[in-house]
Every structure is written in structure tokens, then in C-alpha cells.
Specification:
- The structure holds two protein chains of two kinds.
- Chain A is 38% helix and 29% strand.
- Chain A is an alpha/beta fold.
- Chain A has one domain: Rossmann fold, CATH 3.40.50.300.
- In chain A, helix 5 packs parallel to helix 6.
- By secondary structure, chain B is an alpha/beta fold.
- In chain B, strand 3 and strand 4 form a beta hairpin.
- The chains are: A alpha/beta, B alpha/beta.
- Chains A and B meet through helix 2, strand 7 and helix 3 of A and helix 10 and helix 11 of B.
- Bound molecules: adenosine-5'-triphosphate (ATP) and magnesium ion (MG).
- Chain B: InterPro entries: Fe-S_cluster_assembly_SufBD (IPR055346), SUF_FeS_clus_asmbl_SufB (IPR010231), SUF_FeS_clus_asmbl_SufBD_core (IPR000825), SUF_FeS_clus_asmbl_SufBD_sf (IPR037284), SufBD_N (IPR045595).
């Protein structure tokens, strides 16, 4: 059986001011359907880069390796095709779109994805109903839908807005890049519940985090440790506890 | 008729173009010979059976024009125009009014079809005389300027009942000479500037609107402008007079056929608002901008000016300018009446090799006059766009206020955007505010949108429409929808 998401030997680099910079140096990672995996690792080890490469950001050049998603060659697809195929990325730093109404943006995105998936588009009324419900379940103020996308949102509000988008876009695979950072304790619980509501045999997630607390809520199936552009260790949920108390030094030493 | 072969050639040249509305209608034309001299003007005046005073007015404008030079201060460049190489008069051959759509020239109908004009409106446009009661199906009255002669005017009756006059200006000259004579050239004098003088000398048609005291015009008045014959300079003249306490909303939308050579267009629009009167003038301009390499396209040199003559009168200009190779256009307000209000809302989009130098002038003469300027400039490709605006406050304009907001959005790194605000304040009690921003559509924004499933073009459309929202919301509903689509279409291929 083909795995749901299969990353093998993935290498990627970026052209930074004329210098080729290797960031991903052979990432191997497989996520079966229905599972939630977490990636932890020191700052700058390449976690966000991995999420960007999976989502199709063109600045990163893939130099080796492959990614299979639903049996398709993910790396050959345009970013919007990946979104339509079910991939969602909650950005570590969500982007502001001045002048673009949040509800209008969401509806355009939802309908673009529905069209590509062969589903019927939502009319304005049906969409607004769904959006309001989703916003409410995330304890977002209703006026967040009327404001411009992420403009003037607080750090925590931006993160919640990412989860709102995920809820409405119904991905089969979500990457959450430090969605927990900047959230207060209550918001963290609300966001975690939002992710848990998505859990089903057809939904997988890759959660990038520095904190054990989010993982306590999400109860991931596997935790991977990333360092210097590679997955250097994988284990069960108990890894979170270990990293929390010991840090990465032991894993780094083992890998070296 | 040489025009027929000429148009046939033009149609053959169309080829496959990315310009959605690039087509030319093959229809019998009546063309004046090329060139401009007093005889040309006499011919135009004679064809239109004009009174002596108007001929004299044209001739004096022509003589003034001869002494003038093309303005050079705008930030646009183009090869010299040979004014002797243009036709100054073209009219579709007159036929008696058709009784049904079957009797209408099929070429004309095809043009309307390509423009996306619904069938019942096509009938109205083509001048089909519908049975009583079948007329009032859309609340928009349309005066189609098909080349130079207005082919037809609709909704005349409903408007007549309200006392509103809405007709081709050539007809107004015949039917309401006292009104035309009283106001023509009083806002934009015959010798105002090079292009206005040229227009005054050779204008062939345009619209005339008169709204009497206290009347709220029962519908929005709309004109589809088309430039249709090769080498025919198009010189429309529009005059709108709104009496005390009256109101009108006027829509002007344009698409033009594809052509290879540059084509001159120099219109004049004059607005007069009396006491407590209000005029809303909206434009969506989508003339052929030239191809990706900057070949062809319309030269759009327009003089638009409104006079707020009465106290508390209001003139509001809203424009969405996406077309033309070169745009030179400054819709202005002369705020004479005490407490009168001038507004200018503008979106100007340039792509490929388009050049636009556009803005407004707000002249504060009366006390407590107020003006608002919101100008959004979007540049893509190798285009160049300039906002040029003047706010002038004269000594008697105590309490005058102006607010100006100029925002530029750049797409790519080969285009240019410039803001040139002129402020001349001769009254210390006036308040003038100016804000300006420049921004770019970033890779981050595009990627964020695409990650959410939007195509790159949809993403640009969304961001651009967001950028223009403050202007688009000033447009009448159906125009706003059309304008949003236009914005996206005109920026196609500008990213990636
Ligand atoms: N566009 C870029 N230009 C230059 N360097 C880059 C670029 N993107 C990433 N890098 C570098 O690649 C490395 C990995 O960055 P990445 O953002 O993937 O780290 P991360 O693991 O997500 O870190 P954090 O935990 O701090 O979020 C860093 O050294 C970073 O500076
Ligand atoms: Mg990161």
C-alpha cells in the first residue's frame, strides 16, 4: 500500500545573496493516514524550510529526493494544486493582505479548492454560516471575519485565523508550523481542540513545535527530532517529555 | 467606399489577440477626407446641420488651436501625431429605424454580443422600436455612441416625463439650442488647452444631459463609447447641466476595437452643478492599450471639468482607467459655490508599455468648500504611471478643506509609479492634508494565497481589488462588478 505522505532523501537549498545555502540535507519521513506526527528541533535546523518545500515555495530549490502524497509526485505540483490535493500549511508567520476582507479571502479560497476537488461551490450564505460557526468554535470575535486578512491582528489572533482557514478548507494533511507559539494558555487549548476536531482516519498532520504543552493536548503518534536539515531521531510521545527536561544535546551527540 | 475595404483589412489584421474586446465592426461608413482645415470644420458643421453660432465657435476654437502647442509637461512619451493624417468625421450610413432585431445590421449586433450586452438591451441600442411597455426592463438608460454619431437614444420617454433631457449633443443643438449655447464652453473654454481646442473645433458627438430644478433623475444614465473606424480621431463632447436641488448619476464605459496604429482620442466633458445640485460621474475606461510590446493602442487625451456653481453643490468623479496606450486626464472641480464639495476617486492601472499621467485639480474658490481625492495607482510590466494633482485654495476660500490620499502598488520591478502633488494655498485658514504610500505585491503574499488554493492571477486580482476598494465602492453596483473583472483581466500575465 502506498503511504499517505512519504518524504525520502529530500534535499533543498536556497540562493541567499548569491551563495547556495544547503538547508535540507536528506529528510526521510513517512506519515500514514490518520496519524499526527510532531517535529521538534533547534532553531534554524530547517523545520519551516521543510514546510515551505512541501507547500511548494519556489525560492527553495529541491536538489534531491522525492515526496509522494496520495500516490502523486508532490514536488511536480504548483502550490495551488497541492492545496487542492489536500495540503494545508499554517504559517509560522501568517502574511498580511491589506484591503482584502478576511471572509472574502476565505470564501474565494474555499471555493477555489472545492472547484478543484470537483465539489460544489458554497454560496455566500452557506459560506458565512460555516465561517461564523468555525470562528465561534475557535472563540474568535465575529468581527475578525470582516477585517482585512491578518492586518492588525495580534500574534495569537493570527494563529487562530490560520486554524480557522484550516477548518474551512478541510485539508487531508495539515502542517502546523509553531501554531502554538504566541498563544495564551486558553488559546492554546482552543487551538488544540480545533486540530483534534479534524482528526479522522483521513486526516494527518505534521506539527512543528518547541513546546510539550501543545503535544500534551494533541497526543501525537510519533515525534521526530530534526537537526541540521535531517531527521535524526524518531520515537513515541514520550520523546516530548525527554526533550523538555534534557534539551537536544544528547540527540545531537548521538547523531554526530 | 474606401472605408469598407479599410475596415475589412483591419478585421483581417485582428488575428488572435489577448485583448478580449479587440474587434472592429464592418459597417457602412461615411468618411470625411483626411486632414484638418477650416473646410473640414465647415463640412462637419454642415453635415450636422448646425446653426451659424456653433460654426463660428468651432472656427474660433480652431484658430486658437493653430496658435497652441501640444502640452509637454506630462510624464508620457510618444511619436509626434500628424494631425493632418486623421479623418475628422465618420458616420454610419443613415437608415430608417429598424422595426425588429432582424432588420438591424448583423455586424452591429455582433459587436454588442462581443461586448456582452444582453439581447433586450441590444434591441434598445440598435434603435428597435419596441411595443409600448416593453421598454422599462433595465433601470439604465443607454446612449450608444457608435463612432461619431449616436446611433440611438433610449428611455427617452421615461426621462422626458421626469423633465430630464438625455440625448446626443448634436440633437440638443437642434432641439435645445438655448441651453447648449448658454453652457457650452463655459466650464472648458474653447481655447482651454491644446486638446480641448481641437475638440471644440471638430467634435462630432457626445451626450447632453439636462436635469431641471428639484428633479432626481429616475435612472442612471449610461453611454457605451466605441471608437470604430480606422484613423478616425474621436472627439466626443459631453455637457451635463444639473439645476438647483437636482441629481444625476452618469456612467461612461468604453471598450474599443483592436487596431494597429495609435489612435487619438480627445474628449471634453463639462459638468455644471447649480445650488444643492449633485452630479456623480463614473467612468470605466478600457480602450485598447496596445500589445505586449507597446505597439498600437489608444492615445487618450481628455479634458474633464466640473463647475460647482451653486452653494452646497457637489460633483463626484469616479474613474477606473485600465485601457489606452497613453492616458492624459485630470477630471477637475471648480468649487465656486459656498460649501460646495468636489470628490475624485481614481484607479489607474498600467501594464506592459502603457503610460498614464492622471489626477485631478480641485480649485477652491468659495468659502467652506471641501474636496476629497483618493487616487490608487497600479503599475505592472514596464509601464509608467503618474498621479498629478493640484489643490488650489484661493484667498476667499476660508474654511476650505482638502484631503488627499495617493497610494501606489507596484507589481514586478520594471514599472514605475510617481506622485506629483501640487498645493497652492492662499488662505491660511484652509486645511490641506496629503498622504501617500507605495507598496508592492510581495512573493510572501502571493505564496500565502496560492497555498490557500488561489491561482496566481486570482491572488493578484484579490490583492489589487483590496487595494482599490475605497474607490470601487464609489461606483454604482453593476459597474463595480465589471470594474473588478476588468482590473483582473488587465493585469493578466503581470506576474510569474
Ligand atoms: N530565504 C532564506 N534566505 C536565507 N537563509 C534562509 C532562508 N530561509 C531559511 N534560511 C536559513 O535556513 C535555516 C533554516 O531555517 P528555518 O526557518 O527552516 O528554521 P526552523 O527550523 O524553522 O527554525 P525556528 O525554530 O527558529 O523556526 C536557517 O539558518 C535560516 O536562516
Ligand atoms: Mg521555523
Amino acid at each position: 500500500m502506498t503511504q499517505f505522505l512519504e518524504i525520502s532523501g529530500l534535499c533543498a537549498r536556497i540562493d541567499a545573496d548569491g551563495q547556495e545555502k544547503e538547508i535540507l540535507r536528506g529528510v526521510d519521513l513517512t506519515i500514514p493516514p490518520g496519524e499526527v506526527h510532531a517535529i521538534m528541533g533547534p532553531n534554524g535546523c530547517g523545520k519551516s524550510t521543510l514546510s515551505y518545500v512541501l507547500a511548494g515555495r519556489e525560492e527553495y530549490e529541491v536538489t534531491a529526493g522525492s515526496v509522494q502524497f496520495h500516490g502523486q509526485d508532490l514536488l511536480a505540483m504548483e502550490p495551488e494544486e497541492r492545496a487542492a490535493a489536500g495540503l494545508f500549511l499554517a504559517f509560522q508567520s501568517p502574511i498580511e493582505l491589506p484591503g482584502v476582507n478576511n471572509a472574502n479571502f476565505l470564501r474565494t479560497a474555499v471555493n477555489a479548492v472545492r472547484r478543484a476537488r470537483g465539489q460544489e461551490e458554497l454560496d455566500a450564505v452557506a459560506f458565512l454560516k460555516a465561517a461564523r460557526e468555525a470562528a465561534k468554535s475557535l472563540s474568535m470575535a465575529p468581527d475578525m471575519l470582516k477585517r482585512n486578512v491578518n492586518v492588525g491582528f495580534s500574534g495569537g489572533e493570527k494563529k487562530r485565523n490560520e486554524v480557522l482557514q484550516m477548518t474551512l478548507l478541510q485539508p487531508s494533511f495539515a502542517i502546523l508550523d509553531e501554531t502554538d507559539s504566541g498563544l495564551d494558555v486558553d488559546a492554546l487549548r482552543i487551538v488544540a481542540e480545533g486540530v483534534n476536531r479534524m482528526r479522522s482516519p483521513e486526516f494527518s498532520a505534521l506539527v512543528i513545535t518547541h513546546h510539550k504543552r501543545l503535544l500534551d493536548y494533541l497526543k501525537p503518534d510519533r515525534i521526530h527530532v530534526m537537526a541540521k536539515g535531517r531527521i535524526i531521531h524518531s520515537g513515541g510521545p514520550e520523546l516530548a517529555e525527554q526533550i523538555d527536561t534534557e534539551g537536544y544535546t544528547r540527540f545531537l551527540a548521538e547523531a554526530a | 467606399m474606401p472605408a469598407v475595404t479599410e475596415t475589412r483589412e483591419a478585421v483581417e489584421k485582428l488575428g488572435q489577440s489577448s485583448y478580449k474586446w479587440g474587434f472592429e465592426t464592418e459597417i457602412d461608413m461615411d468618411l470625411a477626407p483626411k486632414g484638418l482645415n477650416e473646410d473640414t470644420i465647415r463640412l462637419i458643421s454642415a453635415r450636422k446641420e448646425e446653426p451659424e453660432w456653433l460654426l463660428e465657435w468651432r472656427l474660433s476654437a480652431y484658430r486658437a488651436w493653430l496658435t497652441m502647442a501640444e502640452p509637454k509637461w506630462a510624464k508620457v512619451s510618444y511619436p509626434p501625431i500628424d494631425y493632418q493624417d486623421l479623418h475628422y468625421y465618420a458616420a454610419p450610413k443613415k437608415k430608417p429605424g429598424p422595426k425588429s432585431l432582424e432588420e438591424v445590421d448583423p455586424e452591429l449586433l455582433r459587436t454588442y454580443e462581443k461586448l456582452g450586452i444582453p439581447l433586450h438591451e441590444q434591441a434598445l441600442l440598435a434603435g428597435v422600436e419596441l411595443p409600448e411597455g416593453e421598454v422599462a426592463r433595465t433601470p439604465v438608460a443607454v446612449d450608444a455612441v457608435f463612432d461619431s454619431v449616436s446611433v440611438v437614444t433610449t428611455f427617452r420617454k421615461t426621462l422626458e416625463e421626469a423633465g430630464v433631457i438625455f440625448c446626443p449633443i448634436s440633437e440638443a443643438v437642434k432641439d435645445h439650442p438655448e441651453l447648449v449655447r448658454k453652457y457650452l464652453g463655459t466650464v472648458v473654454p474653447a481655447g482651454d488647452n491644446f486638446y480641448a481646442a481641437l475638440n471644440s473645433a471638430v467634435f462630432t458627438d457626445g451626450s447632453f444631459v439636462y436635469v431641471p430644478k428639484g428633479v432626481r433623475c429616475p435612472m442612471e444614465l449610461s453611454t457605451y463609447f466605441r471608437i470604430n473606424a480606422r484613423n478616425t480621431g474621436q472627439f466626443e463632447r459631453t455637457l451635463i447641466v444639473v439645476e438647483d436641488g437636482a441629481y444625476v448619476s452618469y456612467l461612461e464605459g468604453c471598450t474599443a476595437p483592436m487596431r494597429d496604429e495609435n489612435q487619438l482620442h480627445a474628449a471634453v466633458v463639462e459638468l455644471v452643478a447649480m445650488e444643492d445640485a449633485s452630479i456623480k460621474y463614473s467612468t470605466v475606461q478600457n480602450w485598447y492599450p496596445g500589445d505586449e510590446n507597446g505597439r498600437g493602442g489608444i492615445y487618450n487625451f481628455v479634458t474633464k471639468r466640473g463647475a460647482c456653481r451653486g452653494a452646497r453643490s457637489k460633483i463626484s468623479w469616479t474613474q477606473v482607467e485600465t485601457g489606452s496606450a497613453i492616458t492624459w486626464k485630470y477630471p477637475s472641480c471648480i468649487l465656486q459655490g459656498e460649501g460646495s464639495v468636489g470628490e475624485f476617486y481614481s484607479v489607474a492601472v498600467t501594464n506592459n508599455h502603457q503610460q498614464a499621467d492622471t489626477g485631478t485639480k480641485m480649485i477652491h474658490i468659495g468659502r467652506n468648500t471641501r474636496s476629497t481625492i483618493i487616487a490608487k495607482t497600479i503599475s505592472a510590466g514596464q509601464s509608467d504611471s503618474t498621479y498629478r494633482g493640484l489643490v488650489r485654495v484661493l484667498p476667499k476660500a476660508s474654511g476650505a478643506r482638502n484631503f488627499t490620499q495617493c497610494d501606489s502598488l507596484l507589481i514586478g520591478d520594471q514599472c514605475g509609479a510617481h506622485t506629483v502633488p501640487y498645493i497652492e494655498n492662499r488662505n491660511m485658514a484652509a486645511r490641506i492634508e496629503h498622504e501617500a504610500t507605495t507598496s508592492k505585491i510581495s512573493e510572501d503574499q502571493l505564496f500565502y494565497c496560492r497555498q490557500r488554493g488561489l491561482s496566481e492571477e486570482d491572488a493578484v486580482g484579490l490583492i489589487v481589488n483590496g487595494f482599490c476598494r475605497d474607490v470601487l465602492k464609489e461606483l454604482p453596483m453593476e459597474f463595480a462588478v465589471e470594474a473588478q473583472k476588468l482590473l483582473q483581466i488587465s493585469l493578466e500575465g503581470s506576474v510569474g
